[in-house]
Input
Amino acid sequence: MATPSQSGKQIWTSTQMTVQEKRLSILVISFSYRPLNNPRSFRWSHLTEQFAKLGHRVDVVTSWVPSMDEIEQDGLLTIYRVGWKKIERLRARQRDSRSQAGTGTASAKSPFGALRGMLLGAVIRTWRAIHWPDAACLWYFPARTKALSLAKAHQYDVVVSVAPPFTAVLVGRYVRNRCEAPAWILDLGDPFSFLEGAPPNNRALYGRLNETYERAAFREADGVSVTNPQTMERYEAVFPESKGKIRVIPPLLSMPPIYASAAPVRGRLVYVGTLYRHIREPTFLLELFTRACRDDQDGKIELHFFGDVSACIDILGRYQERLGKRLSIHGLVGREKVAEAMGEADILINIGNDTTYQLPSKVVEYAASGKPVVNIAKTEQDSSVRFFSNFPYALNLVTHDGMPSDSHVSQFSDFIWHPPERASRSLLDAWLAPYGTDSVVGDYLDLLRRRRG
Output
C-alpha cells in the first residue's frame, strides 16, 4: 500500500507500480552512465536498473568507455555505448589525471612530458573556448545515429534526455522530431543557458544561442524534471511559457546507508565531492580549519578531501604546506571508497555552490549516514542551507562571501568537539523517505506515464 512521506505525498511500492500500470518502453539518452563517476551516472544507472526490475523495457544510449562492452544486456535493460573511440580514450586519460590531482600518485614528469602537458593544456583551453554546446559535442553524431536507429526499430513510449551535458538534449530533440512522436522528457541536473561560474561553453560567444536552444527544447518537450524548487523557480522565470511542464524530483539516495551509532570523537573531518573554481571553492573551509587547528595542540583534528579537486589544487596546495599531515587529498575514488570514507568520518563537510539554484546530490547521502554535517554556504538562500535547515544534525555556516569570523570559528570548533547526538535509524528513514528508491522511481514513472498520455 501507499505510505505517506514527510511531505505528505504518496510513496508507491514496487509491487503497486508493476500491478497497476502498463509496462513502458523507454529510451534513455545519457552521456554519463556506469562506470563513470559522477552524479548523473549514479542516478540514471540506478534508475534504469530499477525500471527494468519493475518490468519496463529500457534501452540506454551512452558514451563508450575503454574496457567496457559496446552492447551490454541485463534482462530488460540494454546499454549501447557509442562514441569516437580516440576521443573517449583521451577523455578517459583526462579523468584519470584529474583523479590523481594532489594525491602524490601521479608519476614525475620528464621535461618532454612537461612540454607535452603544456601543449595539451593550450589545446584544451582553445577547445573550451570554441566548443558548443559543451565538451561532449563530438558524441552528438554517434549518439544521434544510434538513438535514431533504435527509435525507428522500436516503438518507444518515452524518450528521456539526461543533462548535463546538454548534447544529450540535442540528440533527444533530433530523435523526437524524426520519429513517431514518442513523449520526450528532459531530466536536468544543472541548468544550461544561465549556469554561472562554470558554464558549459563560452557564454560571451554562445550566450544567445544557448538560450535559444534551451527555450526550444523546453517548448518541444512534454515534461521537464529538476532536482530542487530553486531550479524550477529560476526556469519558470526564464521560460514562463513552459511553466506547467516543470516538476521537481529530488536527489536519489542510491548509496547504501552508512549509518553508524555514536563513537568517540576523534576529529576526522571528511569532504566528498567535486570542487569548482568560482562556484565551489574550499578557501573558507581551509581557513576555518586552519584557525581551529590553533586551539588543537594535540593535533587530533584532520581534514580529508575525496573527489575531483583538480580545479582548486593550487588553493589546496598552499594550505597543505601550512597544515602538513592534517590535510589529506585522496582524489577521485570509487563509490565503495566514498562509503568507507564517510563511515570513518566524525564530521562530514559540505560546501554549497555560489549559485542558489544548484543542490549537490551528495547532501542526501550525507544525511543518510547519520553523521553530523557542517554545511558552508555563501547566502541563506543557498539550496543546501534550505535542505539542512530541516535536518537536526547539521551546522549551517553562512559566509556572506567573506573569511571566517571569530563566531564562525567558535561554532565550528564547538560542533567538532561536542557534536549533536546521532539520529536514530527510524527517524532518519522517515526523514529520508522522499529520497529513497521507491519514492523517486515512482515520481519518474508518474512523470513518464502522464506525459506519454
Observations:
- Confidence is low (pLDDT under 50) at residues 1-20, 104-109.
